[in-house]
Design a protein that fits this description.
six-stranded antiparallel beta sheet, globular, alpha+beta, 28 helices
Length: 660
């Protein structure tokens, strides 16, 4: 796992100097603390005598800079980056892991390619030589990369199918710059930092800024499963893969139709992810997904798997008992810790590491878990994506349940909804009564809008109430939730629950879950691998009919029954528990002064984004325990603190220790 940065410019005045490239890679040192490397083309710009390249005459590119920070996992002693082919005409910087690199290497050797290293990076270089832009179709893994092809005078950029590894870029005035993290691009002296106000609306709606958008004007995120070619002064993008939700195998309608294939495919995905030259373990929460992954690891290793979990003093957020039970059942070597989060201490680091406003508060426990795990191992497998692929979230059952009422005339559903909306509700965000009321209130809505209102932080009406009139005008031109509706339109012929899981796979999973885990783990210099996101597993799950995944009583049916041998009975039937922290309590206790000092400060209110009366009402209703606005307040707090760190001054090269 690593961090990458670089640039290509055809305007000679837009050169990236060695000093700037060094500052860019220094800002992402946490992603690769073991080594760094830099490459410049043409060679007379180079400050690294170990890299040189031939190049064609009459070139249209003025210069190229590639930078890399390395976390050594495979071929620890070799595979330093940037890395080239035999004559150094092709150079790569690469962040990720290619799990089938050994098999690919064997094929490439037969085709006549020569290797100088034993790692996966050089395999990508020769794949590119062999297959051109189709090289990505052969990769089984996670990656964000850039390849400079001096002979063709082009830069090729690419991101993995699911979007596990991040890739930010900016193209303007004769130059494209890119990096694993936005903060690296902001180290370039002449790069502007202008707030993208449309992205603010997206963040307040979804708690993240969806790709390809970015919180800063002029910057973008490369979407998952995308290859880009920078050639002749322009960038062309194309999608090279999509999950085959449009190719269902509805005739295979029982668990037995899928059991053997699922077992073999996921087992192989785990096997490939056990390749490592450094210590390896796994996150174990005691849920179905992580238990299955740890169980498959344990069956393939001749030693106990090192597993890791954390707990909290608040019982509602503590899963240690289930994790301990799973560990005992599987025979792993388990490590656990009780954490009392020091939110005032971790907040500055969290805001800095996440680059953009990021409102998922489970980033806090994820950072603590990553730190604890890194004390023992360098690589950890996770169970991420099981919920999206195998229909695990409770809200998917709500989708199924409310869908059964859609045959009722809209006027009748609207009447029932209006009556229910006047009933009293619970102040507790997680309470059954509150969730039930929210579900019933939504009966009159279209299915897509109904689901959106369940998952948004500020729905459309609340957003209009919260933000300034000037900011709200932008929402009239472009719906902040367009990415959700666009995703729903991708697979119109599938049942609505499957379309909903496919929508989450395209939006919530890469933009929230995978971003959260990547940033939190990389902050601790820990590599996380996710077998569920092997594209063979994704393709298998996408083709499954909903009947084998979900009933009104059971979620993840095919996963639970296929791997029942690995899952203790209590875990198979346990209620799903989110990996969170008690921010509702914090905002009524130790963080209460911060709400007033930050969200109601002149500095915040004078930005012209928020309605002061709305913010004041949110704070008063929450701190007086009249309503739970914890997630909304957390989003507003993250937005303002991000602006202070990233807009009010250039972001520092290293994470700050205090808020300012």
């Amino acid at each position: 796992m690593c961090g990458i940065a670089g640039a290509v410019w055809w305007n000679p005045s837009r050169v990236i100097s060695a000093q700037t490239l060094r500052r860019m890679t220094d800002s992402i040192r946490h992603r690769g603390p073991d080594a760094d490397g830099h490459y410049f083309w043409p060679p007379d710009n180079s400050h690294d005598k170990h890299h040189r390249s031939g190049y064609a005459a009459n070139r249209n590119v003025s210069g190229v800079a590639l930078g890399h920070r390395r976390l050594s996992i495979i071929d620890v002693a070799g595979s330093a980056q940037p890395l080239g082919n035999e004559d150094d005409s092709v150079q790569i910087v690469f962040n990720g892991e290619i799990y089938n690199y050994r098999e690919l290497r064997t094929e490439l050797l037969k085709a006549g390619h020569q290797f100088r290293t034993d790692g996966d990076t050089e395999v990508i270089v020769h794949l590119y030589e062999q297959y051109g832009l189709d090289f990505v179709k052969h990769l089984r893994g996670m990656f964000a990369l850039a390849i400079w092809d001096a002979n063709r005078q082009r830069l090729v950029i690419a991101r993995d199918r699911a979007g596990k590894k991040p890739f930010y870029y900016r193209i303007d005035d004769g130059r494209l710059v890119f990096a694993s993290e936005l903060k690296a691009l902001l180290q370039i002296p002449d790069v502007p930092r202008t707030l993208n106000r449309q992205a603010v609306l997206q963040f307040l709606t979804l708690q993240y800024v969806p790709h390809p958008h970015c919180i800063l004007e002029g910057f973008q995120k490369l979407p998952p499963a995308t290859v880009g070619v920078v050639e002749n002064g322009s960038l062309a993008l194309h999608t090279y893969w999509s999950a085959p939700y449009d190719q269902p195998e509805l005739g295979r309608s029982t668990i037995d139709d899928w059991r053997e294939e699922l077992d073999a495919t996921l087992s192989e995905a785990v096997r490939l992810r056990l390749r490592s030259d450094v210590p390896l373990g796994a996150f174990l929460s005691g849920g179905i997904d992580s238990t299955v992954i740890c169980g498959l690891m344990q069956t393939q290793l001749d030693r106990p798997v090192q597993t890791f979990s954390i707990g909290f003093p608040v019982a509602a957020f503590d899963e240690r008992a289930f994790a301990r039970q799973a560990s005992q059942h599987l025979g792993t070597e388990h490590h656990e810790a009780v954490v009392t989060p020091d939110v005032l201490s971790i907040l500055p680091q969290l805001i800095w590491h996440y680059d953009e406003p990021f409102g998922d508060s489970s980033a806090i426990p994820t950072m603590y878990l990553a730190r604890m795990t890194r004390e023992h191992v360098t690589v950890a497998l996770t169970g991420d994506a099981g919920d999206e692929l195998f229909c695990g979230y409770e809200r998917y059952r709500a989708v199924k349940l409310t869908g059964m009422t859609d045959f009722v005339p809209r006027w009748a559903r609207r009447l029932a909804s209006s009556v229910i909306s006047r009933l009293p509700t619970s102040v507790e965000h997680r309470s059954f009564r509150r969730r039930l009321k929210r579900l019933l209130e939504s009966l009159a809505q279209d299915p897509e809008r109904r689901y959106l209102n369940w998952i948004t932080i500020f729905n459309s009406s609340r957003l209009e109430w919260l933000v300034s009139p000037e900011l709200w005008k932008l929402a009239q031109n472009e719906d902040p939730a367009d990415c959700i509706f666009d995703a729903y339109r991708q697979f119109p012929k599938r049942d609505f629950v499957t379309r909903t899981t496919a929508t989450d796979f395209q939006t919530y999973l890469p933009c929230d879950i995978l971003t959260k885990v990547d940033i939190a783990s990389m902050a601790a210099s820990l590599e996380c691998r996710c077998p569920m996101l092997d594209h063979h597993v994704i393709e298998l799950a996408a083709r499954m009919p909903i009947e084998v995944k979900q009933t009104l009583k059971q979620s993840k049916k095919v996963l639970s029954e296929t791997f029942a041998r690995l899952i203790p009975a209590d875990i198979q039937t346990r209620k799903k528990m989110g990996f969170g922290v008690p921010i509702d309590h914090w905002f009524r206790a130790e963080l209460k002064p911060m709400l007033h000092e930050i969200l109601l400060s002149p500095r915040c209110l004078q930005r012209g984004l928020l309605n002061e009366n709305a913010v004041r009402q949110l704070i008063e209703e929450h701190t007086s325990s009249r309503f739970d606005h914890a997630y909304r307040l957390w989003n507003l707090l993250c937005l303002e603190l991000w602006q202070r760190l990233y807009l009010d001054a250039p972001p520092p090269v290293a994470a700050p220790t205090v808020l300012s």
